[in-house]
Amino acid sequence: MWYRRNLDIPKEWKGKKILLHFGAVDYRAVVFVNGAKIGEHCGGYTPFTFDITDYLKESDNYITLCAYDNVRGHNQPSGKQCPQLHSCGCSYTRTTGIWQTVWLEGVNSCYIDNVNFVSDIDNPSVNIKCCLVGDFLGCTVKAKALWEGKEVGSNECGVYSGFIEITVPLSEKHLWEVGEGRLYDLELTVEKDGTMLDFVQSYFGLRTVCLDGRAFKINGKPVFGRWVLDQGFYPDGIYTAPTDEALKNDILCSMRLGFNGARLHEKIFEPRFLYWADKLGYIVWGEHANWGLDITDMGQIQYFLPEWLEALDRDMCHPSIIGWCPFNETWDFDGRQQYDELIRLVYLATKAVDPTRPVIDTSGNFHVQTDIFDVHDYEQNPERFASYYEKIVDGIIEDQIQRKPEWSYRQSYNGKNPVFVSEYGGIRWAPDKAEGWGYGEAPKTTEEFIERYKGLTEALINNPYMIGFCCTQLYDVEQEVNGLMTYDRKFKFDPEIIRRINTQQAAIEED
Question: Within its chain, how far is the Cα of 490 from the centroid?
Fold first, then answer.
């Protein structure tokens, strides 16, 4: 796919460096300015930037981009994009090319290229790691934290390399919590000889995430994860939401149904979604889109790890992200099993980049090295479903992997890791459609659906060894009709009924 766009550079940018930013292009992007190739990027979900200053003319500039996408080649993560001509089952319409924002930026001789934050709630402060580009020697970086417009902390440091680290103590402590997205504003200034070279505004949340025995804790308090599967598809834009309000509305609808977060499933979601999750106190799992990628050989890591590291770097600052899950359901490929050391290496790399959050190596199956033992289980009978998880304290889990003799040897619970069922339900419900994909036999009435959903959910809420659940799914996607909303985001049931079921006190919260 080819794009071309004529380009005018603002006159007030004369003498500045001109940066060209792409939010995401699926999959391999080759970029040209005025016919000259300036660079390329592989990865359909992460941002990239080129300095195009030296390629520009006084006028009549143009940008050309070629996007190459091959979901059938098995050498790229493609998520839920269907490799067939038309979508089917739980795979959907493909996305190719530019699907996130493209923009220009004019910068001075020294500018902030990247910044990451880690907060400390015991000694209220934020540690800032900042990368600078250009003529940075002799510069000073000043950091200022604000709460509701009032300065609550500041610090500054000289710049002696392209990387600086600065800690800002906070005079007021306001914790970011579930449902309470309390955010500090942050201002960063780069100065040299009394001249401001760059100014960046951002924000951060003051919170911690940890595993304590079998409990998942935020700010030291046990939290039961009432997660829902969100796949980030839209009827018109497919991967691209129609408006910023639509991104926010998906979270508000989820919260109205009694969920406190989501698995952002088989897609690296756009930053604006994460912004609203931060603002609203919505807890999410950051995932990659590994489906479609052959991971039966160690060499395939070249198609996964670089983009995953870019995603970690882009999203580490978001307080709403409470854990990482690079892989999902790593099924065998053409009869070949996953290469376990590839899964382990990605887990270890994730922990090395971000030691502040738990990591699930591969959600559902087949676990190699993980902080949380999560399983997927679409059993539709609530009594049987509950019975499979009654002996967690004895180190026994009878999930859908253990119930299949041909799979059971591939993973087993060690009796130590926290546990949650990260996919369940998936109940088909589209009585106005003759066909539709989902799990199990569809209920015949609304009452039957509610009763089944209630039974399955309470089996997890009432289990004292569950740290949470993740229901499949928030809304229908194309032919998959197991959402609690339709694809155009209309509630299928009275949301208050679902909310009352989801928000019952969990056994783990009683302690």
Answer: 24
Residue 37 DSSP SS3 = strand
pLDDT digit string, tens, across residues 119-160: 999 999 999 999 999 999 999 999 999 999 999 999 999 999
Pairing of strands 110-120, 28-33: unpaired
Task: Kindly state the tokens that stand for 331.
Answer: 């099924």
Domains of the chain (ranges, CATH numbers): 2-99 (2.60.120.260), 110-204 (2.60.40.10), 223-509 (3.20.20.80)
Positive or negative torsion for Cα 233, 236, 237, 243: negative
What percentage of the chain reaches a pLDDT higher than 90? 93
Give the relative orientation of helices 495-502 and 244-256 as an angle to the nearest 10 degrees.
60
Starting at the earlier edge strand, list the strands of the sheet with 140-147: 150-158, 140-147, 184-192, 195-204
Q: Report the candidate in 288, 271, 279, 225 with the shortest Cα–Cα distance to residue 251.
A: 279
CA 162 → CA 11, 191, 316, 455, distances in Å? 29, 14, 20, 56
How far is 414 from 391, CA to CA, in rounded Å? 12
In eight-state DSSP terms, residue 298 is G
pLDDT, mean of residues 372-393: 96
Mean pLDDT across 57-68 = 95
- State the Cα–Cα distance between residues 206 and 183, nearest whole angstrom: 8
pLDDT tens, residue by residue, 216-257: 999 999 999 999 999 999 999 999 999 999 999 999 999 999
Cis, bond preceding 333 (omega within 30 deg of 0): no
- List Cα–Cα distances, 471 to 199, 262, 396, 433, in angstroms: 42, 9, 22, 22
Answer whether 0.85 is exceeded by the pTM. yes
Q: What is the mean pLDDT of residues 407-413?
A: 91
Closest CA to 48 of 14, 20, 11: 20
pLDDT tens-digit series, residues 308-352: 999 999 999 999 999 999 999 999 988 899 999 999 999 999 999
